[in-house]
Write a structure and sequence with these properties.
This protein is mainly α and about 270 residues long. It folds into two domains: about 50 residues, no CATH class; about 210 residues, MetI-like fold (Orthogonal Bundle). It contains 13 helices and no strands.
Length: about 270
């Protein structure tokens, strides 16, 4: 009886803590979404009068439209680069029997432990020497430094569960390596591939520090333009942009969950 009461108390405490943490994470998002619908230019929550005034201001602002396009270009480029490199590296490591390769795998995480300011300054100096520091290329490379290691780890984990006997059987039956990968290996790793694509895109969309060093007037992304907008005074349009980013990320996760299942997506992420 005492053990049962103790377990119930622990379970209740865990639920209260879980709900408190969830509320702490959700509360700022609710404030941002609510503030984006306020008619006043002052940050007030709850809003006194609901209005889509600032959404109209966002749509009519060419600078924000350009920033959205830039973020999509950079995000797509980063996703392609990070997923391609991560998949190639994970596939090579998985098929390698070298102990040296296994010891070198942790080195792939090095970019994640370097402060983004350090990476930003280093990349600015490097690309600046080629006059490429305000181009999409420099920003995509910078974002890929963070996205690729995570994509690699996700895909390496997925590839470790692949049934390689089926691959070997397909090759023995004269299937080409490309067809074997597409029809035998790829269906077994599609969940991890989708997860790595999501991760790479989300990392790119929200990255700010390195982009601040490498972007120019023609390549400003959403986070950099948002920082510029609130550096002098609070711009209500930033709440609109933040709300739209929340919606975009949520929609991406819902689509992925519907395609591969919520449980599998959670395990991969």
């Amino acid at each position: 009886m005492r053990m049962s009461i103790r377990r119930r108390s622990l379970l209740a405490g865990f639920r209260v803590g879980y709900l408190a943490m969830f509320a702490l994470l959700i509360a700022p998002l609710i404030v941002i979404v609510g503030s984006s619908l306020a008619e006043s230019s002052a940050l007030r929550f709850p809003p006194e009068v609901l209005s889509v005034r600032w959404y109209a201001a966002f749509l009519s602002d060419s600078a924000w439209r350009r920033a959205v396009i830039n973020s999509l270009i950079v995000g797509t480029g980063t996703t392609v680069v990070a997923t391609s490199l991560g998949l190639s590296a994970a596939y090579g490591v998985q098929r390698s029997d070298s102990a040296l390769v296994d010891r070198a795998v942790p080195l792939t995480l090095m970019p994640l432990f370097l402060p983004p300011v350090v990476l930003g300054v280093a990349l600015l100096a490097f690309f600046g020497s080629f006059s490429l520091h305000q181009t999409y290329l420099s920003i995509i490379v910078a974002h890929s430094l963070w996205a690729t290691p995570i994509a690699f780890l996700v895909l390496q984990s997925v590839l470790s569960q692949v049934d390689w006997n089926r691959r070997d059987a397909a090759l023995d039956l004269s299937a080409s390596p490309t067809r074997t990968f597409a029809e035998v290996v790829l269906p077994q790793i599609k969940e991890g591939l989708v997860a790595s694509i999501l991760i790479a895109f989300i990392i790119s969309i929200q990255e700010f520090v390195m982009t601040l060093f490498l972007s120019g007037e023609a390549t400003l992304t959403i986070p950099v333009l948002a920082w510029r907008s609130i550096s002098q005074a609070l711009d209500p349009v930033v709440n609109v942009v933040s709300t739209l980013l929340i919606v975009v990320v949520t929609v991406i996760l819902l689509i992925a969950a519907s395609l591969i299942g919520l449980d599998r997506l959670a395990r991969q992420l």
